[in-house]
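Need tokens for this chain, all 410 residues.
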Amino acid sequence: MTLRVLYVWDADYPWDVRTEKVCRALVSAGHRVVIAARNLRGSPRSEALEEGLVERLPAGPRPGRRIVSFPAFFNPLWLTHLAALVRRHRIDLVMVRDLPLAPTALLVARGRVPVVLDMAENYPAMIQDIWTDGRRGPFDLLVRNPRLVSLLERRTIGRMDHIITVVEESSERIIRLGVPRERTSVVSNTPSKTRVTGPPERREGEPLRVVYLGLMEKHRGIGCVLDAAALLHRTGVAYHLDVVGDGRDYSRFREYATELGLPAERVTFHGRLPHAEAIQVVTRAHVGLVPHEARESWNTTIPNKLFDYMAGGLAVVSSDAAPAARVIGETGAGLVFPSGDGSQLAEQIQKCLDLATWQQFGRAGQAAIRSRYNWEADTSVLLNVIDRLTGAAPQVDGRLSQPNRHTAGI
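Here are the structure tokens for all 410 residues:
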């Protein structure tokens, strides 16, 4: 049965890795996908891609474009755009990414078609991080207020036909908020099994290559990474740190590295790279870092990079943020350090200098990707949810069955 699915993404597209993966999975299953997107870049209103037909907001004049198209549930521009797409494309199911436009999706669906929330983030906790880190803007009291966002979430999630989360801890959080367990599924941020190639390789005596991949923001623990790098440098450890990504604290961290006396032969700031190039940097590394502070936000989500590192055969060194630490403990793919402790991070990185220990971590991570934490398994969960919500597959005991539901499905 071919379905017409509207995927609502609240930023410019392309590109977003999860949006592409979900939409490609739906197209590969024979469904037709329309991707609603913002249009800050002034791109064509419609664009046909392999993963679906992108239907963008009208760009409008450049001055004020960001404000006019802000993805708030009460924005009439988004409401009009989504309602028109539902009618024009005769949509059978709406998937909406994260909280900002979830109420809008419910309004345009009007109870006539199912609405699935693709909850990639604990949005209230993410907004709280902005305030905690001192990054609040002049309008955030209204549009990014943690209390208002939490209230909006509580009033929205109970009306969803189904909620897809990226990790078990996130599902448990919304279940505590009153969502029935049978209306949740985990579809995690995993790579395809094809990303696992040969066993990891490292020449005896070569410098240890350490990589961080992701946004450059305070709560992601980059300061702790640089503290650890400075300690390793002072003790004469042969290593090189690759930092891939940008973000609002990028300049601050580059300045901090200079203050710590880290020379260019020890650390390279690559900035933002195209996804394929970023993955190439990862594949050349030996150790992958997940240093995120163990706040509520990182205790209820899991980053793509954890599984990217594992697929590449890297040893993973993670903070004790709950989901990543649990996966590492279950799989044996690496080591865990106390969040924010640069000296402990440096100590765990040094343990990976031992070739046999490093190989053990890398092989365990790759084995876990092949057997459990892979996009093929997560795709099965995703399609099961879609089929059952639309009546394409039978109900079990009046509820959605979840035969492949597991921790990583991401």
